[in-house]
Amino acid sequence: MSTIANEPVLDSLAPSTPGLWSFGHVTVERVDSGPISLDRRGGRLHVRHSLTPADLSERLVAGVTSSIQDAEFGQNEFELTMVGLVRSTVDGALESWTTYYRNSLAELLDGTADFAPIHDKAEELVRGSVLDLGSCFGFLPLRLARAGMDVTATDILPGTMILLDAVAPELGITIDTVICDAGEVPAPDNSADTVTAIHLLEHVDDSVGEAVIAQALRIARQRVVIAVPFEDEATACHGHIRTFDLESLRAVGRQTGVPFEVFEHHGGWLVLDASAA
Question: In this structure, what DSSP letter does residue 255 have?
Fold first, then answer.
């Protein structure tokens, strides 16, 4: 989770008042009825909602995105709002996040989540042990681990990996986590069969993206699986800073110097033959 000036590092598991969650300049409050609403006054953002535990899942990302009618609403406030919605809907830190994760995984597995086709394709493409770069909440690593794979999730934000470490046992899933930059991964060469970077490259510029792919090829024994969204304009509130199409993905593949495949499936995919690196 990113921060802005003069705000402390976020602890998504910190205690809070039931029905009310605050961090820095953002407050999220659960009310009896009404849609998600935003009220910005005096440098503070107050979000109100009437969500129920059944509403807590990854589907909220699309719902919050469509509710935003505020040009100033950036990635930091989007992420804080998401955390606040989860924490203010269910009492208890671990209980709220376990609800969110359990609902999200169920929707990803039964195909009702928007991201489900992407996870389905990723699971189809991976081989053997998996190291996932930029895991964020870690839904894909959890899904793969639940299917019996040896999986390591990584992310640059300590809070997301701490949260994943706390929730995974509640779901009965065993997974390893590493806090690191995707361009500097503390893993030995050829230490995972597959390295995945699912909807990561759109968050970084060209030079960082090249470093991420170089790390992935160094670590992977068999293949690197990359997925990106196809957007006409980068979605700023999600932290996207560049866009891709099939031709730009082919250019990325050619730069690696290894055999690759590019195709479209709910966005773009680039599969690199790491065994030839």
Answer: H
